[in-house]
Predict the 3D structure of the following.
Amino acid sequence: MELFKQHQIKIYNSLTKSKQIFKPINEGSVGMYVCGPTVYSNVHLGNVRTFMSFDLIYRYLLHLGYKVRYVRNITDAGHLENDADEGEDRISKKARLEKIEPMEVVQQYTVDFHNVMSKFNSLPPNIEPTATGHIIEQIEIIKEILAKGLAYEINGSVYFDVLKYNKKEHYGILSGRNIEDAIHNTRTLDGQSEKRNPQDFALWKKAKPEHIMRWPSPWSIGFPGWHLECTAMSNKYLGKQFDIHGGGMDLKFPHHECEIAQSNACFGENPVNYWMHSNMLILNGQKMAKSTGNYILPNEIFTGENTILTKAFHPSVVRFFMLQAHYRSVLDFSSDALAASEKGFFKLMEAVNSLSSIKTGKTSTIDIKTWETSCYNAMNDDFNSPILIAQLFEAVRFINLLKLETETLNQEDLEQFKKVLNAFIFDVLGLENIIKTDTSSQLEGAVEILIKLRNEARISKNWALSDQIRDELLEKGIQLKDGKEGTSFSIN
Ligand code: AMP
Ligand code: ZN
């Protein structure tokens, strides 16, 4: 039986502001959309935190046996500076400053994003669509919203009519804002705007002469509004209604609020059943962000070339550090916190590496089933990785007692213990056993020393000692093979 039939997950839904039992639209299948990066610069560790949070969720759903279609887009057009409807496109701006093509900017930072995420052992999504690859779909949605009377054209640009939409639907349903507040907050900013109301948002913008990323449309040569791409791509690959939509907390408003409005206006459906938002990574008491210069890049952490940390850290240690916080909690980044995580990480890996030395007993004195249930309960409760990790440290305690033979496990329980532990550490949390590779090179070095000593024994015709070295290594599963090129070995 699939694991998902035995485990009920509860998800904190930002839409209802409560934890709800997860029931996918189609039993056994999950459609999940996560807003991807705007590829105009290197992803910083804050961006990574959000993508890693959804990697954990994706991995757990897969572990439970769900068939998941995970769509994460690449924003390569339409995202203007300050998330606004006016200003320069972030990618065009970078292209102008670097004197290269916008698509060179896109390529460079998409490749960087992929490299970084794979260093963190994040699984790639099933579909990674781009905004520029879906201009036609976006134009079709605008036509439909215009036909429904919920958008208007002015000077070649098209705006979503928030006030009109709000008469029938609730603009602000996700972010909890009400439209009067929105009017109050935006009036002064948009004083010169061509919009009918300051809270209306762009579906299509006519390109100014200097705006080089542009496409033909029925209204003008221009470009789509930032919020539209996610409506177009989620609808295309997951349907009018799908299970999970994720992103960082800061995307709730206006980005996700606008997505809901666009889908309702175009398709007549609330697009998403479970809205999930991950919390921010903080540095020096403030949100890590490119725009303020308050950030660190992943590669600066791996190489140690930065002014924030006292040493370099392995990607898997950074991953462990991030997963020690729940995805909905704020996480403070600091040298001390990373160093503490590193200690815990190595303790966990050393314990895992020593599992093979545990002997089975006749009976079990530890209740492995209860421990296993606690691990699943942690993840079933809104993907609570810190509680899962606390259970993994409980397993470390068991391992130490089992090694001392203070406690015992029968063969069946020991096998189950190893299976569950490995599944949670490597498949669900996505950690990598970096000690293992180190110890195997140390082992190789130690065997080479013994081969050298055996050769010296043979030269001095001390056959008893050379045979003893060969035989005792064989007993430990290490076989020496004498050949023309010297002695080699294999580990069984
Ligand atoms: P962007 O490339 O700016 O569209 O951002 C990509 C993703 O990173 C979005 O989901 C943001 O919410 C997320 N993000 C940006 N800054 C942080 C941060 N400091 N902590 C966590 N997530 C962040
Ligand atoms: Zn989006």
Notes: Residues 438-491 form one domain. The first strand starts at residue 10 and ends at 13. The mean pLDDT is 94. Residues 35, 37-38, 46-47, 49-50, 247-248, 250-251, 280-281, 287-289 surround adenosine monophosphate (ligand 1) (CB under 6 Å).
